[in-house]
């Protein structure tokens, strides 16, 4: 089979598309999947540089989420059968034509969802749903700020926040990106390159600040968020796309009764897989109802993986970027 292979730490330029052996024999709790599409995530760009929480042994293929067709199931697997259309979560190995996944990480697709949509669905939508529903306890009528609102996870937070009944304030770095967020339901738009986020959030909330702030950016954006979150508000730490990991002045948390809440969605696979299953059940229902409409901005063949990763690294994508294994 074909797979993108990483043999040393570095950028996408150091990866190669190679012919490799198919994955080995199945463990009793595993499923073999013929991959039709794979989602590109910022975490992939960190993993190949050796800067992710997990450092696989060389050689390995990046890729944390895929969609495809079940080819074979292990002897202990129930509820999945060859021929099922599924999406799956992986520790790595998604930029390939086949992969093995734990059955607990494999989910049958609703009829309304195609492979390319599904490949970019689990991490972005799963992160945002668990962040807003399980971690922040977002309530209908609350004010939600979403930073990086046109990006892979930010756009899903806009949609899910609206579906949960919040008023959504979207921030992004261009009019085009804000238009994408508006198209997914954002009520108010802030261009952080031309507007002051803190002043605009205060203005839009009558001076109170936002009840919940969803931040996948970090750096200066996080610092600003601390100063425009409401008393008793919740600040969700999703990631650090800006590059700088901010430090939190604990006195601000104390004075305003703010909760700074970390969201490491991947850890739920180990510690609370039932919560992930419950979350996906809710998300599939929202998709079937048309309440969320996943946005895949770029679809590229597997051989163009470097271009696909560059779209994320250079922040030129909106929504998700997906690799497809068939032309």
TrEMBL record:
SMART domains listed in its UniProt record: PKS_ER
Domain Enoyl reductase (ER): 10-323
Record-linked Pfam families: ADH_N, ADH_zinc_N
Matching InterPro entries: ADH-like_C, ADH-like_N, ER, GroES-like_sf, NAD(P)-bd_dom_sf, Zn-ADH-like_protein
GO MF annotations in UniProt: oxidoreductase activity
Listed name of the protein: NADPH:quinone oxidoreductase
């Amino acid at each position: 089979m074909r797979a993108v292979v990483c043999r040393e730490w570095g950028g996408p330029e150091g990866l190669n598309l190679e012919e490799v052996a198919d994955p080995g024999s199945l463990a009793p709790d595993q499923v073999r999947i013929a991959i039709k599409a794979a989602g590109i995530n910022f975490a992939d760009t960190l993993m190949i540089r050796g800067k992710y929480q997990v450092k696989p042994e060389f050689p390995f293929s990046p890729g944390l989420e895929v969609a495809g067709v079940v080819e074979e199931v292990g002897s202990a697997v129930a509820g999945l059968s060859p021929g099922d259309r599924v999406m799956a979560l992986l520790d790595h190995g998604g930029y390939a034509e086949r992969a093995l996944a734990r059955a607990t990480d494999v989910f049958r697709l609703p009829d309304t969802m195609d492979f390319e949509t599904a490949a970019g669905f689990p991490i972005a939508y799963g992160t945002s749903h668990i962040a807003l529903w399980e971690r922040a306890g977002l309530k209908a009528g609350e004010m939600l700020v979403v930073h990086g609102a046109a990006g892979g996870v930010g756009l899903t937070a806009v949609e899910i926040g609206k579906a949960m009944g919040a008023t959504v304030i979207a921030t992004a770095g261009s009019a085009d990106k804000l238009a994408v967020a508006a198209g997914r339901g954002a009520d108010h738009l802030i261009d952080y390159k031309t507007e002051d986020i803190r002043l605009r959030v205060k203005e839009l909330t009558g001076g109170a600040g936002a009840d919940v702030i969803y931040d996948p950016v970090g750096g200066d954006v996080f610092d600003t968020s601390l100063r425009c979150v409401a008393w008793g508000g919740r600040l969700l730490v999703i990631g650090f796309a800006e590059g700088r990991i901010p430090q939190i002045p604990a006195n601000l948390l104390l004075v305003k009764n703010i909760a700074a809440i970390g969201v490491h969605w991947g850890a739920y696979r180990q510690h609370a897989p039932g919560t992930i299953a419950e979350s996906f059940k809710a998300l599939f229902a929202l998709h079937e109802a048309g309440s969320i409409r996943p946005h895949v901005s770029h679809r590229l063949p597997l051989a163009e993986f470097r271009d696909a990763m560059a779209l994320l690294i250079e922040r030129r994508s909106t929504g998700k970027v997906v690799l497809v294994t068939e032309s």
